[in-house]
Input
Amino acid sequence: MKFSIQIAVMLIVTLLFLASLISVYFAAQDEQTLPLILVAGANIVAVILLTFVITRGILRPLKVIKAVVMKVGRGDLSLRIQKTGAREIEELQNAFNGMITRVQRTQEMKTEFVSLAAHQLRTPLTAIKWSTRMVIDGDTGPVNKEQQELLEKISESTDRMIELINDLLNVARIEEGRYLYKPAFAQIDDIVKSMVELYQDVAKQKEVTLEVKSLNDNIPEVIIDVEKIKLVVQSLLENALRYTPKKGRVTVQVLHSAKEVQVSIEDTGIGIPKDQESRIFDKFFRATNAKEVEVNGSGLGLYLASNIMKAHGGKIRFKSKEGKGTIFTLALPIKKDIEEFLNKG
Amino acid sequence: MTKILIVEDDKFLRELLVKKVGSEGYEVVVATNGEEGLRMAKEEKPKLIVLDLILPAMHGFEVLRYIKEAEETKHIPVIILSNLGQKEDIDKGVKLGAKDYMIKAHFTPGEITEKIKEILA
Output
């Protein structure tokens, strides 16, 4: 039903005015009771009509708008307001829907730009990496120790930049909805064990004990995209090792219940400050104490991890005490078939 | 001398690869676009081909498809060397018959040369 509040109110006022005119006419003829009843009746009708106009035309649509605005504010730009209520409200709804569309378009352009820029950066970065490595390898003649050290720094920084670009491209893929998932049955404890093996050298260098503890027997298979879950485990292991001081310990556990398989990674590291706990999954966010320990880091690892876990219908949780350590837990639901995975994803 | 064909459109990367692979005692011939790469694969009869994917004139996957279809070239091992690194790309490359798939930014010229040696051994 489309109506204008302005017209509705005008009609009601006209009705009241007519009622008053009639009552004045009767009052002039000295008939006392009828005009009073007429005015009272007209007032009651007017109040009912006004209430109807206000709820149907303004309050109800406002409630709808409020709900959508809140969700859009939280970042869901796919929503649009369903048109209900008076014409004046509809104009507001149209304007708001147009605004979300423009914000969405800007977001898309930003993501496209990141994606393009990152991809374009890969070739020159490859050239820097290759040239540096060839000089280090002595392909252009001998290098002295000092030169070698500086070249190694160039090489390391280039590798960091390449990793950052990989992360940025993954973020862009997620935002563009191009981050495709290839689900398959997998034994998560095997994956975790082999990943921990890969990081033993890094752990040794840092003098941190890295171990897999008390694995449950018969961990059921889960349906996952193996490459992407590896990325999640890798992020958590790297963080744990990066932010755990010498003589510390990183313990990895795989457990399961009837409904889910859990992977937990516990460290005795610097922890996450209480006031920053709510932001650690935000894109580009890095905790203040993390930045002090390690200058490098994109702030994208946990953002990616939480997106990947969400797409698996799983969860990523953590408990932390600043200065004591952190435990991250990944929970993957046990599902019967791939079909079910795709629906959830 | 064992002949290696490198198909790479970026001048800088191409020169670095030619230098490195050449220094290991291989004869290196180069192509700077897809069409040229396919033509040279047939004319030069290299023992191995290093193939980029995003190339002018013809995409690397097309080049690979033709190489693997033609009788005279289908036995030549091909290493894809590209900065495309998504699983779909890698799967596609392997399915089309590439011997190996290396992501440029993740390997050094030394490692690429080692891979060439390994395949030709």
Notes: Residues 1 and 105 of chain B are 29 Å apart (CA to CA). Chain B has one domain: 3-120. The mean pLDDT of chain B is 95.
